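User: My collaborator sent over this chain with a note saying "see what the structure looks like." That's all I know about it. Can you take a look?
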Amino acid sequence: MLGPIAAGAANLVIGSRYTTGGRVEDWGIGRRIVSRGGSLFAKVVLGLGPSDLTGGFKAWRASTLGGIAFDGIHSGGYVFQIEMTLRASRAGARIVEVPITFRDRRVGSSKMSRKIIVEALLVVVRLRAEEIVGAIRGRTAR
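Assistant: Without extra context I'll predict from the sequence alone. Here is the result:
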């Protein structure tokens, strides 16, 4: 459950495995490295504040979600979570993380693959490159 402080102070609340008090249970070392590494890579490349960018436990303020332009979204799958957080951040949203304990699924299997990992890395780099190009074009247009 979201605390009233987090919900009241934020436009986007992220249930985070990687903030103080958050954790992951029942994962092998490989999955931990891929998940944590993916979040860290995106955080550094995109200059974002949240620690858990690949998770899907999010609570959006309706007005914030409604203000995001969905045309031009580059991604599906796991990297969609990163792109949506990026768009919210760039739109000035206040983003708060609350700790969660994430347990491995009991039914079904992960859809994670090397192809999805490579796609995510490429999309993160593409998003940053587009921001850089946009900033350069904005400066030259003045």
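A starting point for your reply to your collaborator: Residues 114-140 form the longest helix (27 residues).
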